[in-house]
Amino acid sequence: MSSRPHGGVERNVGYHNELDDTVSSSEVQAKLHAEITRTIGKQLFAIRDRSEIPYVEAVILETLRIGSNVPLAVTHFVNEDVSFRGFLIPNGTTIIANVTSVHHDPSVFPDPFAFRPERFLDDSGRILQASEQVIPFSMGQMSCIGESIARIELFLYVTRIVQNVEFKLPAGCKRTTLNGVFGITYRPEDYNVDIAKRNLKI
Ligand code: HEM
């Protein structure tokens, strides 16, 4: 299979979505901060600490799921006839993977439009297998080459930011929708936030 070229804008978009969901839910933010405070306080996180703070992982997973930053992945085309589940896909056919649809399948993710990080945690707070159904980087040989670095960056970025600052919607502002701006990437509409430094004496 061959790919059609695309730009590399999903990185900022992914991180923007991450902030977006954190801002929208003060409850999620408070839980994130509590978990970070309990495990490492104000020290710098290392990637090895990841398993210690599964709620952070769950928030990142849920953001990648609901945000589906690259909603239709990258288009590919088959460069020979392919037989797939009884269908013939002729040489030259364009293939579009609908990542958003996968992420909103109610049989896999009940109440799929609700932002609910707990769906990825078991009763003892560990990450569930369901996390493997989240495929923001697509799948297979042509999947995102930056997946590992993106996952590490997201973890370090979210923990460091939540450790140090708190996001609030300005007085009188209310985000009532998760609708965003659709393109090669999907991103939240612009809106204002207040950012307050946290008291770092933990
Ligand atoms: C949240 C962050 C990111 C998301 C959601 C994301 C998602 C994706 C998706 C869905 C694809 C298409 C895969 C396919 O064709 O099936 C892709 C391709 C690609 N991504 Fe990412 N990506 C992210 C971050 C990054 C980063 C940090 C880098 C580089 C350091 C990167 C580099 C690439 C490249 C080079 C391709 C094209 C691969 C190819 O066509 O051979 N991505 N990405």
Give short descriptive properties of this protein.
202 residues, two-stranded antiparallel sheet, disordered N terminus, binds protoporphyrin IX containing FE, three-stranded antiparallel sheet, globular, Cytochrome p450, 9 strands, alpha+beta
Quick gist of this model?
The chain is α+β, with helices and mostly antiparallel strands and 202 residues long. 33% of the residues lie in helices and 13% in strands. The chain binds protoporphyrin IX containing FE (HEM).
Question: Would you mind describing this structure in some detail?
Answer:
The strands form four sheets. The protein has a three-stranded antiparallel β-sheet, with no helix packed on it. A two-stranded antiparallel sheet has the order 3-4. A two-stranded antiparallel ribbon has the order 6-9. The chain contains five helices and nine strands. A hairpin with a 2-residue loop joins strand 3 (82-84) and strand 4 (87-89). It has 202 residues and is of the alpha+beta class. 25% of the residues are buried. It binds protoporphyrin IX containing FE. This is Cytochrome P450. Belongs to the cytochrome P450 family.
